[in-house]
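Table S2 (text version). Query chain:
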Amino acid sequence: MVLARRMHKNAKRFSAAAGTVTALAVGGTLLLTPSASAADQPTIRQLVEACNTTSSFCRFHPQKLESYIGPNHQVGATVYNCGTGDGEFGVGGQDTTGSSDSVGVAITTSAGFEGVFEVAFETSYNHTWERSHTDTVEYKKHLEPGQKGWIERGTAKQKVTGWYEIQFKKRYYGHFDWYVYNYTESGFDTSHPSAGYTNLKSAPMTATERQQHCNR
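Corresponding structure-token output:
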């Protein structure tokens, strides 16, 4: 992820300058100052957190939307058949998928960029963005004596890549306008909610597991 800055002499030149920046972003050329030290410019996180809070203008420009399956993970607790006969055991529970971004900014009710991102996303792709989505994933699993059972799941997710355009009424680190490129955010795929997978798993208990869960 990179950021760029540009200072305009007056407000009348902004619209033309903004059009230039858009073209440069698409063409892959960035307005950078490689020789600047860290103290000469804000961090990416500072800029994103300023979006729609301390900034006078902020807009997110989506460029690419990707669907994918999230990492394999266990849902709910493992169950153990400590009896002497076969049985049907309930496995699973609630599975919550949150949002994450390439900056690591905490999403709070005061986060201005949250609304800016969601409006741009929904306008561009005609479906909603969920900051947190919870599914109830519960099944019955047949277990033989001495077996353990659990559920593994890969959740349907989506990732958006784009750039932020941020303006300030007063110079911020010496400049009125800043641009954050290659920003990404991922979350639950509301357009393909059933695209993931759920696997019911079983295996023999280890001696340690038998002692921990059955010898009580």
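Notes on Table S2: Residues 14-27 form the longest helix (14 residues). The longest strand covers residues 156-172.
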